[in-house]
Amino acid sequence: MMHAANVERSARLQRMVAVLTAAGPRGLTSRELVVSADVVAPSTYISELRANGYAIGPAIMERTTAGGARVYRYILGPRQPVAGQQVLV
Fold first, then answer.
1. What is d(CA 51, CA 85) in angstroms, rounded to the nearest whole number?
2. Tens digit of pLDDT for each residue in 8-43?
3. What is the DSSP letter of 12?
4. Distances (CA, A) of 78 to 62, 75, 81
5. What is the pTM of this model?
6. What is the model's pLDDT at position 89?
7. Residue 56: which region, alpha, beta or left (left: phi > 0; alpha: psi -120 to 50)?
8. Dihedral angle computed from the Cα positions of residues 26, 52, 4 and 56, in that order, rounded to the nearest 10 degrees
């Protein structure tokens, strides 16, 4: 099991929530998260947000690059309570 930082105490997770919230239903690609949230490993942080109760829909494949890499978008959904964790609003 992964140890996830608490979003209430993590500036990087708070930045992720802020930029994903601002993106709305369009969501953001991993590259857009790297640039706009100033993070290094967006997929790891997405996992941490999920562990904090955030519903982040399955990444939606947007396209394939000329080199064959798949590009996905992450879309933030509502936050659900996590057992043993206080959710601040």
1. 10
2. 999 999 999 999 999 999 899 989 999 999 999 898
3. H
4. 22, 10, 10
5. 0.80
6. 44
7. beta
8. -20
